[in-house]
Amino acid sequence: MRETEMLLPKTFDLDGPFPQLSRRLRLGVVGGGRISVMQATAARLTDRWEVVAGAFSSDPARARAAAAAWHLPEDRCYASFDDMAQAEAARPDGVDAVMITTPNHVHFAAARAFLDAGIDVLCDKPLTNEVSEAETLVELTTQTSCVFGVSYVMSCFPMIREARAIVAAGGIGSINQIHVEFMQDWMTPKEVADAPHVQWRLDPKKSGRTSCVGDIGTHAAHLSSFVTNLAQTDLRAEFHVCGAPKPLEDTVFAWTRHNGTVPGTLMATRLAPGNRGGLRLRVFGSEGGLEWDLEDCERLRFNRFGEPDRIISRGQGHGVSARTERLVRTARGFPEGIIEAWANLYTEFAMAVAARRDGRDVDTGWLDLPRVAEGATGVRFINACVRSNDAGGAWVSLGR
């Protein structure tokens, strides 16, 4: 039997800082690559999680080696995520949730195994390679009442949350256009495609029908809707291989529509020398505009037409909204970055997991954690891009 202690305080301010829990939550790791280390580091930073188990490799010898590397007992490191789901669900001290950080083609089976076991999930994007699989995960999440988060971590930067709040308050008026781009340069050298962590990203059997679109394009698409609260409904896309020959695209150019009428652009590439984390969002409305750049993530540019330009900076005591303030750890002048954004994701995930385990319905309007439905939307975005490109760049609907 699992312990029945309450994790959240009996009362707390839904508009104030996130509360401390009565204990750290137990986190399992599925997948042993570089991103799992980054996410585990961020989860520990929240002081709300401890890593207690993992399925790091299907090779038993490598799984045992991973146990030592992660400082875990051998009996908590598994060579199969199915075995891990069943064993951990049966333990009184089993994992409260898992992170899934495998290549794309494993996401569906791994997530389903843990949902079936009643264990909450935070999965990397893209959620799956097939729309039908994504929709199945949405249905399973509803049936099991589990928490299912998706790692659209770019939405967890404080200044992105501030941009979302400004838009919701009508700060830029009625939105009339949305532009987002994600420019990187790490695939510029030809030999980079031979690296093990890159090979699967270019393998259609593992990455699906796309590489750049499914990886960084989905971040861009999610961010445009997250900040504006406008659903992306239609697009036309063109795929390109701008560098050395590859089986999948390294660049995408797309025109988009939100809510059927609001136009926009979306561009993503890994062949833009001089750009490392070149995610940029620009939203313009009838009264003003917002601009944010990942490589200058501490600042949000907020303009109202006819008024002096404003630069809002992240940091405690700087007048940002209460919902933004609770995701800020340091004062102005002491930078935060991607690890802290991941930590914000894991903080909100912890709150959602704790609320479910306590049987409390406190989540409505409290958390902005990206959920499984947003993950499914991302898969429909990928599918629409593929269909549009196959049709010579024709307009297509994301549909369902």
Task: Please describe what this structure looks like.
The structure is a single chain. It contains 12 helices and 14 strands. It has 400 residues and is an alpha/beta fold. It folds into 2 domains: 156 residues, 3-Layer(aba) Sandwich (Rossmann fold), CATH 3.40.50.720; 192 residues, Dihydrodipicolinate Reductase, domain 2, CATH 3.30.360.10. The strands form 2 sheets. Strands 13-12-11-10-6-9-8-7-14 form a 9-stranded mixed sheet.
Strand content: 15-25%
Q: Which strands sit side by side, in order, in the main sheet?
A: 13-12-11-10-6-9-8-7-14
Proportion of residues in helical segments = 25-40%
- Summarize model confidence as the mean pLDDT: 94
Helix tally?
12
The main pleated sheet reads as: 9 strands, mixed
Morphology call: globular
Structural Rg? 21 Å
- CATH class label of the largest domain: Alpha Beta
Estimate nothing, just give the exact number of structural domains: 2
Second rung of CATH, namely the architecture of the largest domain: 2-Layer Sandwich
Instruction: Count all strands and give the number.
Output: 14
Low-confidence stretches: none
Helix- and strand-based class? alpha/beta
CA-CA gap between termini: 40 Å
List SSEs in N-to-C order: EHEHHEHEHEHEHHHEEEEEEEHHHE
What is the CATH homologous superfamily assignment of the largest domain? Dihydrodipicolinate Reductase, domain 2
CATH topology of the largest domain: Dihydrodipicolinate Reductase, domain 2
